[in-house]
Amino acid sequence: MLKAALRQAHSSSVRPQPVPPLLQTLQRYLTALEPLLPPEELEHTRGIVQKFGCPGGLGENLQRELIKRAEHSHNWISDWWVQWAYLECRQPLAVHSNPAISLPKRDFTDWRGQLVFASKLIAGLLDFKAQVDSGRLGVEYMRGQPLCMELFPQLFSSCRIPGPKHDHVIHYGRPRRGPAHITVVRNYQFFQLDVYNSDGTPLTESQIHAQLLRIRSQSWKTDKQPMGILTSEHRHTWGQAYTRLLRDKINKESVRLIEKSIFTLCLDSPVMRISDEKYSSRMAAQILHGGGTFSNSGNRWFDKTLQFVVGEDGSWGLLYEHATAEGPPIATLLDHVLDYCKKPDRMRAPLIPLPMPKKLYFYINSEIKWDLEMAKQNLDILINDLDIKCFNFQRFGKDLVKQLKLSPNSFIQVAIQLAYYRVHSEVCAACDIASLRMFRGGRTDYIRSPTNQMLSFIRAFDDDAVSVSNGSVWGRRHSYSLMGQGIDRHLLGLKLQAIEEGLSVPRIFMDTAYGLATHWKLRTGQVPANTDSVMCFGPLVPDGYAVCYNPQQDHVHFSITAFNCCEETNAEKLALTLERSLHDLQELFQPTV
């Protein structure tokens, strides 16, 4: 009761998300189009936008309905956004949707060290979950405002369920008597591991370690059928296979136990040794997709909200499903786990015999076997198509940028746009992520680039016509998205409101300019981490890139992905150009004599 009261009190202190003014959004939309469109096309679009926003017009009517929706809902856009961006998306979760975080290598190189660290990792996660469940997790703040904490309980015992037209998320966690097990996967074999004693206390590290040894003894050989690879399929295909799979009672029980589990631990087999230069790229790929059907991809269940990966060589990381989880709560969880891993295990194991971990079995008929063969082929095609380049830029980090009285995020964004322009001789629609946790039930919005000032700066840069004082490109990037005044979620809401009312899609959204403005050739993301971690995910469009960066004091970690099927994009080339662009920007401020 007390816990529920505390959550209610905190929830009421977080503001509802506002619906931005219509004319403000339309004007900012036109401004965002200026660097992307030639003048004649921009004028054509301006006429369409003005008609949409005129007094008494369609835009005003839709806006009025959005305001009513905001008054009578927990959050006027978040449910729509999750449904539209994630649950209705039919692309595979592997690469296209689930972000991966590769964390600093641990100091072990064999299976013994792997299991010792995995035991501590599990104990740290259970410790964090106890804080969430008891209401002891401290409220987070940004700019003096309390942040919404609603996503934290959803991280555990939740799973995405495939469907033929759209997916849905099931959350099995309950304050009392929720699931008490995790899933452990090794050599493509799934195990149910109970992580609480009969009195409700979590297992100690030594107890967990003993159970992981038991799992290892039951999974010497690799299973012939990597069932987890089914979850990497196109969502429509997996939805059909899921229905066939669950017709069998044994399969249904096994799948349900995976879905209900608190989280999944993937104990990966060793991968082929490579040069130090390529190691970080290989490890990011292993966390992201498992390396393929002959590597560790069968050790994944991509629908699961939280999957922790621990390799025998000291590599480890996290893969999360995006419909339920966002970057900032994941960063909080990881900070807690990393702090926990620094502490010694002081808990003595109770002298109580523990039940043997339960191996989960699957009955595979000819239909399921065919589904598996297709899934294996398609995943290997997807993995071979993905180009990943991770690198550590060591010339400077965020400290130097701050000394120049600049925002590190803005500095890096300008460098990314400059690098893209140098490779492709154009700028493109690019999105960075703004968290909307200042609002109740808030998820994210986009921070758009380039701006007109950035375009002018980039064009002038290689003509030696640029100076430190050029425009406001060095100012802090637009913060209005953080304040709930971004344009992209608002425009999406107007479009979905029209569809919900049974109207034709408004002309503003059928205009080629809107298609161009939402064809995100650059998907960027800053990792909010205090460690040398590397985040990685696939591009949003076939001819695009995804660029993640983690600025530390004296260096910056980058990951860049592109698809090999597109002849115009090349992750290696963009990475080299980005390094040179960062050097050149430093020279602008600190010219060498």
What does this protein structure show overall?
- This protein is an alpha+beta fold.
- It has helices spanning 2-13, 22-33, 39-53, 58-71, 78-87, 111-134, 151-154, 205-217, 235-245, 249-260, 276-289, 327-341, 366-385, 398-403, 408-424, 452-461, 488-500, 507-510, 512-517, 571-589; strands at 100-103, 141-142, 145-146, 158-161, 168-171, 181-186, 189-194, 264-268, 306-311, 316-320, 358-359, 386-393, 430-435, 444-449, 522-526, 534-536, 545-551, 556-563.
Q: What are the SSEs and their pairings?
A:
Blueprint: H1 2-13, H2 22-33, H3 39-53, H4 58-71, H5 78-87, E1 100-103, H6 111-134, E2 141-142, E3 145-146, H7 151-154, E4 158-161, E5 168-171, E6 181-186, E7 189-194, H8 205-217, H9 235-245, H10 249-260, E8 264-268, H11 276-289, E9 306-311, E10 316-320, H12 327-341, E11 358-359, H13 366-385, E12 386-393, H14 398-403, H15 408-424, E13 430-435, E14 444-449, H16 452-461, H17 488-500, H18 507-510, H19 512-517, E15 522-526, E16 534-536, E17 545-551, E18 556-563, H20 571-589
Parallel strand pairs: 6-8, 8-9, 13-15, 15-17
Antiparallel strand pairs: 1-10, 1-16, 2-3, 4-5, 6-7, 7-11, 9-10, 12-18, 13-14, 17-18
Helix pairs in contact: 2-3, 4-17, 6-8, 6-12, 15-16, 15-20
